[in-house]
Amino acid sequence: MKGVRVDGYVRVSRRAGREGESFISPEVQRKKIADWAKLHEVEVAEWWEEIDQSGAKLGRPLFQEALGRCERGETGGIIVARLDRFARSAVDALESIKRLNEAGARLVSVEDNFDGSTPMGRFAIGILTLIAELELERIKENWDTAVREAIGRGVYIAARVPVGYRKDDKTGRLVRHEPEASMVAELFRRRATGASWESLARFLEEGGVYPSTGNKNWSRVGVMSVVRNPAYLGEARQGAITNPHAHEPIVTQAEFDAAQAGRTLLKPVHDGSIASQALLGGIARCAGCGHTLKVAGNGKPGQRYPVYYCVGRYAKGICPARATIRASYLDSYVEEQVLHALRAEGGLLAQAVESSQAIEEAARAVEEAEHELDLYIANPKLLSILGEQKFVEGVQARQHALDDARIALAQHRAKSMVSDQLLSGDLVKAWPRLSIQEKRRLLHGLLDRVVLTRAPGRGKNTVPVEDRTQIILRGNVLLEPTKRDP
């Protein structure tokens, strides 16, 4: 290699505790490379120094730039102080060596005293990289053991402490911190009843509660990350390692689940609006076309009242039998039927809303999605085979699938929580004193839909509401009607 221009590559791992025989400082690496170059009359044209970069990561930017220079013919090879500075995966090392060989460039490892362009050098590199890969696996196992033990003690391992907590300096565990913790608890309750992300952001800012990043404003994504953080259940987690009782929770499981399903369980309406006076907005449907009935106001100014009605015209065609009814008539009937079913002991209502089988199936779907993600990330060959971009896309796709599965599970649990509330005898007694919004939330958690058929006549010839209405409970179970008092 006499007279050839080469690049010197230096790398130090990101892991803390850099000591022992495996550690080699950047200064020492540079000196070894420079001494070798001087001895062999080789010019080091460029130095590439990457600090806090794992050798298991092939997509190191400066490392890739050094390889690119070799492939473009700008340099004759790469010199490293020791082979494990080049790569710690046999697959990655041999792939990179192949790229160098195809470009007519070389890899030289000073301490290991070999040249990768020779058959014996390639053989030696293959053996040594396998040894390095085994060493990496040992380090990973030790790291996993340390993480597992820390999580078991309740240590919260994350760069930022969740809002509403402080981290104990001695134990590493999260400690509830007021008044932020109470604000976070209220945040979950508001989301459970359908509050928008924007209104929740304003709520936190007005209460003087700010993100752990130090910003004075909450973004929509920031508020979402709070509501979806299982740390508020008292959980410490790192990957698949979980301690569900690591610290004091701020919210209960029911409150957490209800917040996850808040927007789908009950869409928000503005207090004082016509829509806020209708109990069944969003779940009342037209029997003629199956579409959700809209809510509009009718009557004279100052005396307006809500009405459910079918729009009639849709992209798929015109409704053949548009249904419409004054909201108070339908609401009163459905409320009466639900309360009657609640007072009945043990019956159809409880079976329809508990949905234990659906919860079990949703929980299994979450476990399968978690397992799929863990297997994908843990496969050391996928990054090399797919490349960094494709690998990241695969991780994101599996993470999205896991998020969807968790949301589905949360929705089922939220419905179960609502059913528990509805089946409470105390709640039945308190029903007359509940606000419209409280009744809406409970009914939306209990009912899947209320189907209304078109009335064929008017005035005295109008079909009674009980003969036009079907009440479908969660679980797609028909609520058998009871006769109304004359």
Q: How are the SSEs placed, and which strands pair?
A:
Layout: E1 5-12, H1 26-39, E2 43-51, H2 61-71, E3 77-80, H3 83-86, H4 90-102, E4 106-109, E5 114-115, H5 119-152, E6 165-167, E7 174-176, H6 180-192, H7 197-206, H8 220-227, E8 236-238, E9 241-243, H9 253-260, H10 262-265, E10 284-286, E11 294-298, E12 305-309, E13 313-314, E14 317-318, E15 324-326, H11 327-343, H12 348-354, H13 356-378, H14 382-386, H15 388-422, H16 425-430, H17 436-446, E16 447-452, E17 469-473, E18 477-478
Parallel strand pairs: 1-2, 1-3, 3-4, 10-16
Antiparallel strand pairs: 4-5, 6-7, 8-9, 11-12, 12-15, 13-14, 16-17, 17-18
Task: Please give a structural write-up.
By secondary structure, this protein is an alpha/beta fold. It has helices spanning 26-39, 61-71, 83-86, 90-102, 119-152, 180-192, 197-206, 220-227, 253-260, 262-265, 327-343, 348-354, 356-378, 382-386, 388-422, 425-430, 436-446, and strands at 5-12, 43-51, 77-80, 106-109, 114-115, 165-167, 174-176, 236-238, 241-243, 284-286, 294-298, 305-309, 313-314, 317-318, 324-326, 447-452, 469-473, 477-478. The chain has 3 domains: 5-149, Rossmann fold, CATH 3.40.50; 173-260, Hect, E3 ligase catalytic domain fold (Alpha-Beta Complex); 275-478, no CATH class. Helices cover 46% and strands 15% of the residues. The strands form 6 sheets. A 5-stranded mixed sheet has the order 2-1-3-4-5, sandwiched between helices. A hairpin with a 2-residue loop joins strand 13 and strand 14 (317-318). The model has no long low-confidence stretch (mean pLDDT 79).
